[in-house]
Amino acid sequence: MQMSKQTGFTLIELMIVVVVVGILTGIAVPAYTDHIVRGKIAQGVGALSEAKVRMEQVFNSERTYNCALDFSPVFNETPFSVAISNCTTTTFTMTATGKSANGMSGYTYTINQSGEKTSKTPSVTASQSCWLLSKGATSC
């Protein structure tokens, strides 16, 4: 009588693989999501910085801030929209607000003519006097 050799995986081996994959997924997905959010924040604050530079260029040539400038093209490719407030001939405040359609609801970044920065994220309810550059950051 000849014994046949079985091939394949046992149920225990399969369950071990499922557990390992589950653990890796539990670690990798949140890390990946946080990485994506950091990239979106970088896009927003980069566009906000560029808009401030353009506002300063206008001020240097016209000796006044132009409150009617349209900065939406600067923000077209970002998950943020921009608004200008407190705009006079010598002051302005620019605010980049996260678009909820892009998963950035609750993120707000501002800068004024003096370069003073503030930010709020879903993790932080009180405005911080800097730009928080990650989802979990709570202070400068």
TrEMBL record:
Record keywords: Membrane, Transmembrane, Transmembrane helix
SUPFAM superfamilies assigned: Pili subunits
Pfam families per UniProt: ComP_DUS, N_methyl
Name the record gives this protein: Type IV pilus assembly protein PilE
InterPro entries (alphabetical): N_methyl_site, PilE-like, Pilin-like
GO annotation (BP), single: type IV pilus assembly
Protein's organism: Zoogloea ramigera
Membrane-crossing residue ranges in chain numbering: 12-32
NCBIfam families given in the database record: IV_pilin_GFxxxE
